[in-house]
Amino acid sequence: MTRHFLNLSDAGGDALAAILNDAMERKAARADLPKGAVDPDAPLAGHVLAMIFEKNSTRTRMSFDMAIRQLGGTSIVMDAGSTQIGRGETIEDTARVVSGFADAIMIRTDDHAKIDAMAKAATVPVINGLTDLSHPCQIVADLQTILENGKALPGLEVAWLGDGNNVLNSIIEAAGLMKFNLRAGCPMGFEPDAAFVKEAQKAGAQIMLTGDAKEAASGADVVVTDTWVSMGQDHAEEKIAALTPFQVNEGIMALAKPDAIFLHCLPAHRGEEVTEAVIDGPQSRIFEEAENRLHAQKSVLLWALGKLG
Ligand code: CP
Ligand code: NVA
Question: Which fold would CATH assign to domain 150-284?
Answer without folding.
Answer: Rossmann fold (3.40.50)
